[in-house]
Design brief:
There is one protein chain. With 348 residues, this protein is α/β, with parallel strands linked by helices. It has two domains: 215 residues, 3-Layer(aba) Sandwich (Rossmann fold); 77 residues, TATA-Binding Protein (2-Layer Sandwich), CATH 3.30.310. The chain contains 13 helices and 14 strands. An eight-stranded mixed beta sheet has the order 3-2-1-4-5-6-7-8, with helices on both faces. A hairpin with a 2-residue loop joins strand 12 and strand 13. Helix 3 packs across helix 10. The chain is globular.
Length: 348
Amino acid sequence: MNESTDPGLARYSRQMRFAPLGEAGQRRLSQSTALICGCGALGSVLANTLARAGVGRLRIVDRDFLELNNLQRQVLYDEADVESGLPKAIAARNRLRRINSLIEVDAHVADVDADNLSALAAGVDMILDGTDNFETRFLLNDFAVKNGVPWVYGGCIGAEGQSMTILPGETACLRCLMRDAPPPGATMTCDAAGILGTAINVIASIEATEAIKVLSGNREAVSRVLTIIDLWDNRVRQVKLDSLREQHDCPTCNGLEYPWLDGQRGSHTAVLCGRNAVQLSFPEPSELSLAALADKLAHVGEVRHNPHLLRLLVDDYQLTIFPDGRAIIGGTEDIAEAKTLYAKYIGA
C-alpha cells in the first residue's frame, strides 16, 4: 500500500500496513472512544497500547494512587510519578499526552460504581477491564449488556491470566460464565500468590487487540472463547462459550435483571489486593477542601497534599483522602478499624 498523505495518520503507517486494519480501520480507530476502568497493571498496559494505536479518545478511571511496588508491572509510570504523589489516572493522562498528542485523554479519579458508571461510560464505543475485583466487573457487565456496548474482561494472578470478549446480543456475557461474583476469600489475591508483569502484558495485549478489532470495524475477528494462559507452565487453554449463550437462562442477557447496575449488589468498602489497605467510599460524595483539611491535620501527623489527594501519616497508618471524601486507609485490612480511623481523623 502507499503511505497515507494524511499527516495525522503517518505515525500509524506500519500498523496500517496490516491488511485487515488498513487505512479505513485506522480512521475508525481515530473516531472511537474507549473507557478503561482501572489504570493499574492491566489498565496501564491497555492505555499505553491503545494510545499508541491511535484510538481517538481514551477515558481513564482509577481510584488509586501510586506506590513503588506498582512499578514492577504498571508500565506507564516511573519513580518520579511515585514521588509526585499523583493519583494514577492523572499520572497516566500526563504520560499519554506526551506519547500521543493527537488523541484526547480524559482522566477521572474515582471509584467506578453504580452511581457514576452511566456518566463515565456515556458515548463510549468500548469498555476495557483494568480492575482488580469482580464486583466492578459484574457492574461493567450489567451496563454493557443493557446498553449494547462491547467490553473485554481480563484478570491475572501469579503467572496466569484470562480474557474474554463480550459482544452483547452475540456472545456469552460474564454472568453466563459465572452466575455470581466469588465471595470474599474465595479467590487468590496478588498479595498471597504474587504476580508476574509478563502475565499482565500478555493478557492486556489480548484485551487491547480485541478492542482494536471492534473499534476498527473488524467485529467478525473477535474471539468467541475464554482464553486462559499460564506462562510459567507454558499452557494455553481456550474454552468455547457458545453453549452458555445458547442455554438462554442468563438473567442479564435475557434483560430480566441488572442487580449491580441497579445498586442492589455491590458494596462501598473494599479490601485492596496486596495492599494491606481498605478503601472507604460513600453513597453521597462530599466536596472536601484538601487545603483546609491539611491545616486541620497538621498537628496530627505528617501531611502532604496536592489538588488531587491528601496523605496523612500517623502512627502505623497512611490515610489517603480524595476531594469527594473517598479514602484509602493503609495499614489495616479490617474494615471496622478503617472506618474508626476515618471518623477519628476526617470526621463521621
